Known about the structure:
Blueprint: E1 14-18, H1 27-43, E2 46-49, H2 55-66, E3 70-76, E4 90-94, H3 97-106, E5 110-113, H4 118-132, E6 140-143, H5 150-161, E7 174-176, H6 179-188
Parallel strand pairs: 1-2, 1-5, 2-3, 3-4, 5-6, 6-7
Helix pairs in contact: 1-2
Amino acid sequence: MSPPVTIQPFAGKSVCLFCGSSETVKAEYLAAARAIGEATAREGWRLVYGGGGVGLMGASARAAHEAGGRVLGVMPGFLRSRERLFDEVETLVVQSMHERKTIMYDQSDAFVVAPGGVGTLEEVIEVLSWKRLDLHTKPVIFLNLNGFWDTLVAVMEHSIAEGMTPASFRQAWTVCNTVEESIEAVRAADDLPHLQHDRR
């Protein structure tokens, strides 16, 4: 049995960033990740992310840390070498992907979804699924650089058109085209009504 996880207390807003760990990405995606990290520090928010030092994950965490912001990374032990643990910030090494996602969810007030691969897709689908079941009201914000998430949004629209998902679920996420819009959406989320999406 693993020891209980100890997390340093933080009284402000925490923003979870789901994003890719690939190093073979466009420079503008890395620049956007850095901008998100810098913005969370500037706003006084804590950045919660997957704990890696590579790809968009590493770029965002380093930028937040260098700008004086708080960062919480969460990584399963088996990924330490693959995603190169960034231990200059508070980092939890956990047993499983499920534990990682649970902690990231519990420690966050909002989710920003930057470009990423199948892991990023899996993370945001789970959070949206929970929102569909009214298990939370936390904002989910897609950073849709170059239309990166257009296809996923189209799939969700198809599900609505086919009667699998209620039309009200369109309000469960926000699509933003720039980092600035994404940060503003996080700011504005506190003023939005908390809607129910499980209308059967």
